[in-house]
Write a structure and sequence with these properties.
The complex is a heterodimer. By secondary structure, chain A is α+β, with helices and mostly antiparallel strands. Chain A folds into 5 domains: 3-183, 3-Layer(aba) Sandwich (Rossmann fold); 196-281, Translation factors (Elongation Factor Tu (Ef-tu), domain 3), CATH 2.40.30; 300-366, Elongation Factor G (Translational Gtpase), domain 3 (Alpha-Beta Plaits, 2-Layer Sandwich); 378-484, Alpha-Beta Plaits (2-Layer Sandwich); 487-598, 2-Layer Sandwich (Alpha-Beta Plaits), CATH 3.30.70. Chain A is built from 15 helices and 32 strands. Chain B is of the alpha/beta class. Chain B folds into 2 domains: 2-260, Aldolase class I (TIM Barrel, Alpha-Beta Barrel); 329-394, Arc Repressor Mutant, subunit A (Orthogonal Bundle), CATH 1.10.10. Helix content of chain B is 39%, strand content 21%. In chain B, strands 7-8-6-5-4-3-2-1-9 form a 9-stranded mixed beta sheet, sandwiched between helices. In chain B, strands 10-11-12 form a 3-stranded antiparallel beta sheet, with no helix packed on it. Classes of the chains: A alpha+beta, B alpha/beta. At the A-B interface, helix 14 of A face strand 1, strand 6, helix 8, helix 9 and strand 10 of B.
């Protein structure tokens, strides 16, 4: 190990959502004088608006800090922030692989939660040294000793002496800095070996092209050298290398084994810089890529349409821009009879989908109509073998289906014991298979279930929260496919199938879903001059029906003393509303009404 | 000599009386209950002065209808009201057989007063009866009883006012089909010449709207049942529907209100009053104190609230919107005479589905709404008419 390496500490902060990860990051940056206080934006690492509002970190960010320790030595801290949501588990695992240690932040009032545990396991899998930090000790309900004991019992790492801090007030932050220096190992790696750098993040910058965040595992990289992405073999010439400072990029001569830094190489597309991929030299490549690389595969699909059909091109441009920074987002044009031209988009999960929707609406000022999220089903079709279906309306007719398969996940739910009954009921209702239940302490358990993914994306998280008063937490990972009795549920308005409202559901769920959506349709479709029959069908069987009564009254039966302007304005406003209407067959429905039908709340 | 060259164009005069004894729970017209009785005199002065200032503008006009509306005109002290009535005649050449209407709430005018108004020219009284059911009247926040309505009608007849309208209302909280039938029956029994049916509409900002959750309103189906029943019942009693909300014995159609729907000219005086004059629609700001101040101070420009030029294209859109309210509908030949355009070419295709659906009737000479069409007329009109970005009609 070189002297340079001895003074480097590469670490992440992992935590359950809201346990104070970003605030702790801010305090560490502040304490190392990485940023002057006046320049300090709250929660500096989360630099997307949306992240700051939702209090979640969507994409990993990294920052290089310099710390003068109590022994007088100067250390380089590379703090790598990680996303805290299960949709981004793979990205978390890659960020962790760039580190030697992780601060495991646990809320002194809440204790260990599902994501604490899931992230802790990821960190252990990546051979990281875990440094527990008990946070929020300023709160009156803080139970530092209980939480320390819980960390020891559940995760099995010593926590008796671990820092107990308040990231909010700054109390005991020097303890954290000391623990980083003392407890987290320095990086190893041979500066002279063939180059291998792990990509743990990248983003598109309109001046520099893609900026690739890497951890150098072996070798040394300089500007001007030719590099190769080992998963694809694509090569680039390095324009610049350097470090990520709190307030921007800082050019350097080289990056060597143990360093965390960035590379720019006039790369046009983030899909060329896949997270987890290995960067090596073109002329002297590493023998093997770094282990653990996976393509980020979308698991959840939905149709996204512009509410105003004329903005199709704007939507395409916006999606293209977002994809520059988000290799996990996929989209392909699709046409719906009901909604016109739009895109079938693939997401890592529901949160990822919500984030993309919100960014499209907020940053690109688009009004969207989004169909209900779906998963990829696999179907053995008589004669043509296995097909994958990411759009429910393309689901094959029952006559030709030999077998159907749906994706399942392994789910872990941590809940206070008070809510076990309700949650088990929920999981059973969602076709879950119970595996086991482990007591974390006397008041909390961890439940393990196998659940169909399509049940999870249909409002599971909200239902879980409402049955546990917000206390239960969920984590899951894909677990392949199982054979399943699935059916295609169509909705007909006025006798016409509305393709955008087609669902794939399990047989047992068809009736309940049919009734619920039919009711929603009845409540949300504005009355029109004729009666509108609503039917739900599975194949040729009608399994639910409702009727939107005909509009009887829409009149100004008052004459406002010659105020014609008022009447004119009223008609104009009405016309304005009509323009936004989408024709679902022969029925006019506003985008709001359509979205209200698909809204996944008030379930259960 | 100059006088002989004057034209005698027709004109409606509207005078708004923005005062009430008590504001009704559903009302969003501009009116209030004054604390200081001196405001009546000042207001009458202002209206009279304001009308006077139109003397030259209106020189080629001979008003054939006058309408005193409100608010509650009969809540004005009779002396002040009489001054206004005389003021109209001193500023405009009101024709001899003009229709002069005054709105009135039951129990706000005695026979003596009505007699004086009759002598001052008022020959039509519009009485805000609303309902014959005491609970419904209370829900509306009305201060009168059905007994007051009967007395007022008797007093008006006594005062030789031989053209009486009763305003009725449906869609009232707690109203039932039976109570509505009862209201209609009792109204007809009073033998008015004219009946108006208004559908209660919740207007934002009114106490009824704010407390809407406390009331049970008849639903749309019920309101339509009430409306259709009224049309057939009134027809059987000799009251013909001539507009969405208006019914009359033959020859007693309200000439003033017809002007609104036939796109004829009218001048309105008083705060919040609307005018359509010389191809301009305009209104005055809804404030009594500002009205008085600006009229007296001669700052007439400051009175204006809305102001809109109505070019030919806009007139055509308004014509369709307003004429279709009338039972007679739009006469193809008259439309062509007025605009030099073929109505069918402009709207025939759009109307076809409504004709097919039984909402519009094509009588050969004219297009008109059927009963069910009238009750969804906004839906149909907003479909067939187009607007540009500034809210003007687009053809």
């Amino acid at each position: 190990m070189t002297d340079r390496q001895k003074h480097i500490r590469n670490f992440s902060i992992i935590a359950h959502i809201d346990h104070g990860k970003s605030t702790l990051a801010d305090r560490i940056i502040e304490a190392t004088h990485g940023v002057e206080r006046r320049e300090m934006e709250e929660q500096l690492l989360d630099d997307m608006d949306l992240e700051r509002e939702r209090g979640i970190t969507i994409k990993a960010r990294a920052v290089r800090l310099e710390h003068k320790a109590e022994d007088g030595e100067r250390y380089v801290f590379n703090l790598i922030d990680t996303p805290g949501h299960v949709d981004f588990n793979y990205e978390v695992s890659r960020s962790l692989c760039a580190c030697e240690g992780a601060l495991l932040v646990v809320d002194a009032t809440q204790g260990i939660e599902a994501q604490t545990l899931a992230n802790a396991y990821l960190a252990v899998d990546a051979d990281l040294e875990l440094v527990p930090v008990v946070n929020k000790i300023d709160l009156p309900s803080a139970e530092v000793d209980r939480v320390r004991a819980e960390i020891e019992d559940v995760i099995g790492i010593p926590a008796e002496e671990c820092p107990a801090v308040s990231a909010k007030t700054g109390q005991n932050i020097p303890d954290v800095l000391r623990a980083i220096v003392d407890d987290i190992p320095a990086p190893e790696g041979d500066e002279d070996a063939p180059l291998s750098c792990l990509i743990f993040d990248s983003y598109y910058n309109s001046y520099l092209g893609v900026v690739v965040y890497v951890r150098v595992m072996n070798g040394t990289l300089r500007a001007g050298e030719r590099i190769r992405m080992m998963s694809s073999g694509v090569e680039f010439d390095v324009v610049e290398v350097g470090y990520m400072r709190p307030l921007g990029l800082d050019k350097a001569d080289c990056l060597s084994a143990g360093d965390v830094g960035y590379i720019t190489a006039s790369i046009k597309n983030v899909s060329d810089t896949k997270i987890g991929d290995t960067v090596t030299h073109a002329d002297r490549p590493a023998a093997e890529p770094l282990p653990g690389f996976k393509e980020a595969l979308p698991m959840v699909f939905a149709g996204i349409y512009p509410a105003d059909g004329a903005r199709y091109n704007d939507l395409r441009d916006a999606l293209e821009k977002l994809r520059l920074n988000d290799a996990a987002l996929s989209f392909a044009p699709e046409t719906s009879v009901a909604l016109g031209f739009g895109f079938r988009c693939g997401f890592l999960g529901l949160l990822h989908m919500e984030v993309i929707e919100e960014r499209l609406e907020r940053e690109f000022n688009l009004d969207l109509i989004t169909t209900a999220p779906s998963v990829i089903y696999e179907v053995d079709v008589r004669g043509s073998g296995r097909v994958r279906v990411d759009n429910p309306s393309n689901y094959p007719p029952p006559e030709v289906i030999e077998r159907a398969y749906e994706p399942i996940v392994k789910a872990s739910i941590i809940t206070p014991t008070d809510y076990i009954g309700g949650i088990m009921e929920l999981c059973t209702d969602r076709r879950g298979t119970f595996h086991d239940m482990k007591y974390i302490d006397t008041s909390r358990v961890e439940l393990h279930y196998t659940l169909p993914l399509n049940e999870i994306i249909y409002d599971f998280f909200d239902a879980l929260k409402s049955r546990s008063r917000g206390y239960a937490s969920l984590d899951y990972e894909p677990d392949g496919y199982v054979e399943s009795k699935l059916c295609k549920l169509d909705f007909l308005l006025n006798g016409d199938i509305v393709d955008a409202l087609t669902f794939i559901v399990h047989e047992e769920k068809a009736y309940a879903r049919a009734r619920r959506i039919a009711e929603r349709l009845k409540d949300n479709i504005p009355r029109q001059l004729f009666e509108i029959p609503i039917q739900a069908s599975v194949g040729s069987r009608i399994i639910a029906r409702e009727t939107v009564k005909a509009l009887r009254k829409d009149v100004l039966a008052k004459c406002y003393g010659g105020d014609i302007t008022r009447k004119k304005k009223l008609l104009e406003k009405q016309k304005e509303g009509k323009k936004k209407m989408r024709k679902l067959g022969t029925v006019e429905v506003s985008p709001e009404a359509f979205m209200a039908v698909l809204r996944l709340d008030d379930d259960n | 000599m100059a006088q002989s060259r004057r034209q005698n164009k027709r004109l409606g005069i509207y005078v708004h009386i923005p005062f009430c004894r008590k504001k009704c729970a559903y009302c969003d017209f501009y009116s209030y209950c004054p604390h200081d009785a001196r405001v009546y005199e000042a207001y009458a002065d202002a209206v009279i002065a304001h009308m006077k200032s139109y003397r030259d503008v209106g020189v080629d006009y001979a008003p054939d209808t006058v309408y005193i509306g409100g608010g509650t005109p009969t809540s004005m002290p009779p002396e002040e009201m009489l001054r206004i009535l005389h003021g109209i005649r001193s500023s405009f050449r009101v024709v001899k057989n003009a229709e002069i209407t005054m709105e009135c709430n039951p129990a706000t005018a005695d026979m003596q007063t009505l007699r004086r108004y009759r002598r001052a020219g008022v020959n039509r009284l519009s009485i805000g009866m609303q309902s014959s059911n005491e609970n419904e009247l209370r829900a509306l926040g009305r201060i009168h009883s059905f007994g007051d309505v009967k007395r007022t009608v008797r007093d008006a007849r006594e005062a030789r006012i031989d053209n009486i309208n009763l305003d009725l209302m449906y869609g009232i909280p707690f109203q039932t089909f039976d109570s509505w039938r009862d209201t209609l029956r009792r109204a007809v029994a009073l033998r008015p010449e004219h009946i108006s049916l208004y559908c209660l509409k919740l207007e934002a900002g009114t106490p009824m709207c704010e407390n809407a959750s406390r009331y049970v309103f008849p639903d749309d189906e019920m309101q339509f049942a009430m409306y259709s029943h009224a049309i057939s019942y009134l027809a059987s009693c000799g009251y013909e529907q001539y507009e969405i909300s208006n019914f009359a014995r033959r020859g007693f159609e309200c000439r003033h209100n017809l002007k609104y729907w036939q796109c004829e000219e009218y001048l309105g005086f008083g705060p919040s009053a609307h005018s359509y004059f010389a191809d301009v629609r305009f209104s005055f700001k809804p404030s009594v104190s500002e009205y008085i101040k600006n009229v007296v101070g001669g700052a007439r420009g400051a009175l204006t609230d809305e102001y809109e030029q109505i070019p030919a294209r806009e007139r055509l859109g308004e014509y369709v919107m307003l004429r279709m309210r009338l039972n007679a509908g739009i006469d193809r030949a008259e439309f062509f005479r007025t605009f030099g355009k073929d109505f069918d070419r402009l709207f025939g295709q759009k109307l076809a589905r409504y004709v097919k659906g039984g909402f519009v009737k094509d009588t050969g000479g004219a297009y008109r709404f059927t009963t069910s069409g009238m009750f969804v007329s906004n839906y149909i009109l907003s479909d067939i008419l187009d607007f540009d970005a500034d809210g003007h009609f687009l053809l």
